[in-house]
UniProtKB/TrEMBL annotation:
Gene Ontology molecular function terms on file: magnesium ion binding; terpene synthase activity
Keyword Metal-binding attached: yes
Protein's recorded name: Terpene synthase metal-binding domain-containing protein
Annotated source species: Citrus x changshan-huyou
Gene3D superfamilies named in the record: Farnesyl Diphosphate Synthase (1.10.600.10), Terpene synthase, N-terminal domain (1.50.10.130)
PANTHER family: OS04G0344100 PROTEIN-RELATED (PTHR31225), TERPENE SYNTHASE FAMILY, METAL-BINDING DOMAIN PROTEIN (PTHR31225:SF241)
Amino acid sequence: MKADIFGIFKDDEGKFTSSLVNDVTGMLSLHGAAHLGIRGEDMPLRRGLTRLEARYYIDVYSKDDSKDQTILRFAKLDFCTLKVFHWKELTTLTEWWKTLDVKTKLPYVGDRIVECYFWIMRVYFEPPYSFGRMTLSKIIPFISIIDNTYDAYCAIEEAQLFTNAIKRSNPRNLYSTFST
């Protein structure tokens, strides 16, 4: 798909045609089509996370001559409130991760708790999904640890012993790890 494919919707000045601007369904369709990606496309971080993308649009809207100051203030307040909310979640997660002392016990494992949190933010970005965000942000690093252990750290014999240990383990013991 060519980058200028949407040029047919613009007038000579590079603005969207008035017939499209007044067509809500058309604008929503154009908006949806603009999010389609192709393999190898490099998208900025703000394009993947809904709330980071909102921050970009707040900046764009603030420069618009026809902006509504009340809406702009509300958007900024909403963004800042959510930023504090997510910052608290990240603080809780990083403190939990530090108490596990994974870096010392398993030196081949990287500190990727923040990265895991942002992975989950793509799915559960709304505030009511805090429990799901926090839970999955705790589970994904352990899946990564197990994967790294098998792939890069242990020999075949050690992998077999590790597999047997996992099979013998009691899943109820995991509750204490994830509930803190």
